[in-house]
Amino acid sequence: MARKKTAPQTSALASGSVSTGLFMMFAAVMISPIIDIFAKLAITAVPAIEISAARFLIQSLAAVPFLIMRPHLFSMSWHSTGFHIIRGGILALSMISFVATLEFMEVADAIAIFFVEPIILTILSSIILKEAIGWRRYTACAVGFFGALLVIQPSFAEVGYVALLPVLSAFCIAIFAILTRIGSQKEDPWSMQLQSGMWGFLFCALPMLFSDMFGMPAVAFTSVDTTILLYLLGVGVSATLSGILGVYAYRAAPASMLAPLQYLEIVSATIFGWLVFNHFPDAIKWLGIAIIVASGLYIIWRERRFASKPVSNVETTPLTP
Predict the structure, then answer these.
(1) How many whole angstroms separate alpha carbon 115 and alpha carbon 109?
(2) Is residue 71 pLDDT above 60, yes or no?
């Protein structure tokens, strides 16, 4: 009889945990485009690499208190420094590529193109991790890329090859996610986040520090006024909030259940882009966005149905552009 009484309570707790996770992920994807709104405002005065450095620095500092409370986590990560250096470099390249895009493209367009990342991840997982991917998911990937082309084509006509930078950013994040999946089997997500942010910051800071020596004025550190400083703080703080919410969302609910909510970021990005920059995607871009979202959701559904390992990880949300 005791078991019969406790089972509903356990079920209720599980249900409450999932609901909390869904709410946290919803909040995370609503906040996430604010990162890019602040970055687009700041890109008019400072280079993309400096904006990226500010984000990585603030996110790394935010992770420190959690590790101070659990100092044993340091010993879980430093033995694999080379692994984290690679992850940090890939993450830095992704962030810089995406932020540089925002100087020429609208936030919603760039994010829509970036959301080919789950499609790229599906393909890379089959190649690198040898995961079984059926013809249906490959077809969905092809359809998703077609949708991306509908967004890229008019943007390409407007800004040229810059329109391909979100694809490069998505490719880097897909590789980063695979490395994260490998490393997360042994390490705590907070420890991994600290090292990702720390190495990402160094990859951004070093070129700025030695820009004069190597003749790279485009990446030189630029002094900022109070307004731009607030924009940089906005990038870092909103990224940290979105990241922390994402970490705890994935701890409270299954990744396969949370992953579809990430596509709401396109909606929130469109809303913020309209409110701040008075930009709204045209009909062709909306068609492309709809195709990207539909193909991505189909891939997630197929993976969930066949109990594949979810494409998302506890750390992919905090550190994506």
Answers:
(1) 10
(2) yes
CB 252 within 8 A of CB 18: yes
The model carries a pTM of 0.79
Q: Name 83's Cβ contacts closer than 8 Å, sequence gap at least 6.
A: 179, 183
Report pLDDT digits (tens) over 261-297.
777 788 888 888 888 988 887 788 788 888 878 877 7
Cα 233 to Cα 53: distance, rounded to the nearest angstrom = 11
Hey, what amino acid is at 75? S
In this structure, what token pair is assigned to residue 8?
């509903």
Give residue 321's pLDDT. Answer: 57
Least confident of 11-20, 132-141, 225-234, 246-255: 11-20
Give the whole-angstrom CA distance, residue 287 versus residue 176. Answer: 29
Residues 54 and 206 sit within 8 Å (Cβ to Cβ): no
Query: Are the C-beta atoms of residues 92 and 233 closer than 8 Å to each other?
Result: no
> DSSP letter string over 116-127?
THHHHHHHHHHH
